[in-house]
Amino acid sequence: MSSLVARRRHPAAIAVVLLLGLILTGGLYAAFAPKNADAASGDTQAVAAGHNLFLANCATCHGLEAAGGDGGPSLVGVGAAAVDFQVGTGRMPLANPAVQARQGKVQFSSEEISQLAAYVASLGVGPGIPPSSLTSGGGDIAKGGELFRVNCAMCHNFAGSGGALTRGKFAPSLMDVSGRHMYEAMLTGPQSMPVFNNSNLSPQDKKDIISFLQNVKTEPSPGGWSLGNLGPVPEGLFAWTFGIGVLILIAIWLGKKAA
After folding, report:
1. Chain-wide mean pLDDT for the chain?
2. 152 is in an annotated binding site
């Protein structure tokens, strides 16, 4: 009996159990670990083409291996969504260093942007490009408005018209931004914007916010001329300027009449 127990407790058995445990753990992690939602990241041809585009257009700042370089941050782990937003809105490639990258003319085709996104996505796990079902509207507008006012209005203005920040930075207007790029901005936090991951705002919350902003774009102004929805400062300035101008004209007319 004692010899049987000794055979069952052979040291090699412990090593085998540990090895099986490691294999099982690795298999489970590979199966259930978060993966990039961008299907293009698995396309080796797209990754290779994106790598060539990166070397020709981005490596000067971000380094040959995208690990950061002369003024450009590392792109490892930023995901396809960050590339699609930055390149798809014309903010990158950055022509001149500035306090903040501005939206500009898009320099690449949709296919080239997808290839660049696939290459960067292959460098590390990061947010993928969202599906159109989350970015094309159709959400709860009322809830989206509430979420926007709580999380976004302090920078982007109550109607998404943008606003000034500190040190020469600004929150851009959202009136000419697509739903896809809005969603990607919430996922990746470009410039001074914080990251709103799925723990902060669920995918449905983001969809509701996008739906609210898309409704604001088409909603008529019940108060008349909105003056860009920039708030009371430009409205007050207009009222003072226009009002004083009218008073000056009336004073001139009365003076001429009295003469």
Report:
1. 83
2. yes
